[in-house]
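Interim report, section 4.2 (structural modelling).
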Amino acid sequence: MSTAQPSQMIAPFRAVVENRAASGRILLVCEHASHHIPAAWGDLGLAAEARLAHIAWDPGALDLARALATRLNACLVHAPVSRLVYDLNRAPDQPGAMPARSEVFDVPGNEGITAEERDARTRAIYLPFHDDLHDEIAHRIALGLAPVIVTIHSFTPIYFGKPRAVEFGIIHDTDESFAREVLAHAPRGLDSRLNEPYSAADGVTHTLRLHATPYRLPHAMLELRNDLIATPAAAAAMADRLAPCLSAALAGLSVGAA
Amino acid sequence: MSTAQPSQMIAPFRAVVENRAASGRILLVCEHASHHIPAAWGDLGLAAEARLAHIAWDPGALDLARALATRLNACLVHAPVSRLVYDLNRAPDQPGAMPARSEVFDVPGNEGITAEERDARTRAIYLPFHDDLHDEIAHRIALGLAPVIVTIHSFTPIYFGKPRAVEFGIIHDTDESFAREVLAHAPRGLDSRLNEPYSAADGVTHTLRLHATPYRLPHAMLELRNDLIATPAAAAAMADRLAPCLSAALAGLSVGAA
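Predicted structure of the assembly:
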């Protein structure tokens, strides 16, 4: 793979926006929707197994986000490129943005990455996505739709060989109000926890920090254990459980604000 | 002025970027550089005097910013449109974004503004500027240039009939480190104060909140009393005094980080 003048060669990967005309308050974001590695980056030196593993994307997250978008009359903004090329929930200077190692996998195509290549990926993937997302959010703020930003993620049931008991993690940036409402209305029978399996202190709230916090928008990052949303049918069933939870959390927020 | 489908009629006003190739750490921003009211908004119902007053722009700020850019080897991003059409240092839902009244002036063209018109101005002016600024900042972060965001403003010596004694105000968002360094190295003989004539609590740090704070970038909003930079020669003389102050503040920051 040549990295000579890469920024000149790679066209921007725009965000995918679905239900743009939806008028619901919640705006759904799925930064790890895709495991697609564009041709410019070959296979990043990875075997097929790794390219489809949770290090490449959040399995089930897009299915869940789409099912929630339908149920909540929500706009959905999602990514067209694997997090292994650029992890959109990381700033360009965070090590995880283009990781040379992710959990137990080495990523040879990300080793010894140059500043120019870092810049090229930032321009080709990070900036188009976040500028498109910013456009949707500012548009909704201007129209008085009072958006609530909800990012949809999934996490692996076994991490570094250890099983995780938590099933539904609810993470917030500086404003915990919406996350606490979601927890208060979490579906029965789902092991639901605040700021697990990780939290803002781990640097995982970049999207919220960039788009929700500056506008003081209520927000949450929702993390589902991926074995619970492994098929489209399972994701739809989970959306049936989560949509009422999110609606109740919205209502709780309005009561709190009144 | 018709506001039917305004977003369809108005082409985006991109940010003006000067010294893009500059490699200095400081990135200068001037949101109130221009008093230009594009034809689409007529004269906003204002007399010529008001259209050139401090409510329309920050007199002297662009001259000062350009003089600093030369002295500091800094990239400069500035606005092409008057703050009366859209104040780029305000979010779309802040009342000051398209003010119907500014200090002692009514702005008839901003009275009873519709959601559609608010959205149209957001798309035509706010989003292009901030997306362009975001692109410059992320590009510099990716290249490892460790940018420091400095916004350049001026304020009126007499506000609501009362004279202001402060000459140089240094305002910060959540991280005060760079602002305190600037104050510590402020030019002798200049009445310099932290968080005057206003502060983040007054909602005036939107640009810093949007672009510096999410990336944990050192930052300051510099406010010069506009009678001190009323001519290009005065602005250049002020830049001669401020450039060493900012260089020393940068050096102090590095010492603090070591």
